[in-house]
Amino acid sequence: MASALINVPATAKRGDIIEIKTLMSHIMETGFRHTVTGEVIPRNIITNFTCRYNGDEVFQADLFPAFSANPFISFFTIATESGKFEFQWIGDNGFQETASASIAVT
Amino acid sequence: MTEPDRSTRRQFLATAGGAALGAVSLVHVGSAHATPDTMKAAIRDVVKGATVRPGKVKLDVPPLVENGNTVPLTVTVTSPMSDADHVVSIHIFNEKNPQPNVGNFYLSLRAGRAQISTRIRLADTQTLTAIAKLSDGSFWLASADVVVTLAACTEEAT
């Protein structure tokens, strides 16, 4: 099963710029590799990543086969209010995973 | 009597070897790779005719990587991230992977800092290009050369 690693600071001051690190376990099969018998291994990648902060989209990414396996993405956002970050990964073969993290803003 | 036999065997081996080499190079020709031209086309798709100026963007990537399967990469754009002047998106391209696109990152005004990090695959020693789109519609770019000793993407699966 796919699993996510999320790193969000547990607390922050209002207005702080915080870094969010995410990692989703996924093979990210490029679709350009062949087996020893010469057959193409079909593509199986995550194609889209979204981060929502209390429901508002704050970051999005399109992923291509050039992403490493277990894609790692880190980005920044301003801590505006206490609440929840929701992360979503969507990919080939109906892949869909979500994760969330809470933050307390003072 | 043995002499002609040997020479035919040698000829046969030479021909077989040549054929094998031919087959190998055919495989390489057959596997489509992005070229600087396809990268330019992919960039054109993103900027849609706008001029792309060098500057504002910083592309941090190790100059020499041993393993092309995970190359750490950070793109930082100098921007106040204010209502009037902020980064809308960051796009990363490569020259020699099978596809020219690496990733598109869409930042919001709430990013605070225009910086993203990720890990990518590189199939060969090549030049990477990062392009940032600002809120005023201008495009800025940075390039970086990376030497790769062990290539990713196209190796045979075991």
Largest sheet of chain A at a glance? Answer: 5 strands, mixed
The CATH architecture classification of the largest domain in chain B is Sandwich
Structural domains of chain B: how many: 2
Please tally the β strands of chain B and state the result.
Answer: 9
CATH homologous superfamily of chain A?
Immunoglobulins
CATH architecture annotation name of chain A? Sandwich
Strand content of chain A: over 45%
Quaternary structure state of the chains depicted: heterodimer
Write down the Rg of chain B.
23 Å
Termini separation of chain A: 36 Å
CATH hierarchy, class of the largest domain in chain B:
Mainly Beta
How many helical stretches of chain B?
2
> Rg of chain A from C-alpha positions?
16 Å
> Which segments of chain A are poorly predicted (pLDDT under 50) over 5 or more consecutive residues?
none
Q: What this model shows, in words?
A:
The complex is a heterodimer of chains A (106) and B (158). Chain A is an all-beta fold. Chain A has a single domain, classed as Sandwich (Immunoglobulin-like). Chain A is elongated and about 60 Å long. Chain B has 158 residues and is an alpha+beta fold. In chain B, strands 1, 3, 5, 6, 8 and 9 form a 6-stranded mixed sheet that branches. In chain B, strand 5 and strand 6 form a beta hairpin. About 7% of the residues of chain B have low confidence. The interface between A and B is medium-sized, with 32 and 36 residues. Strand 5 of chain A pairs antiparallel with strand 6 of chain B.
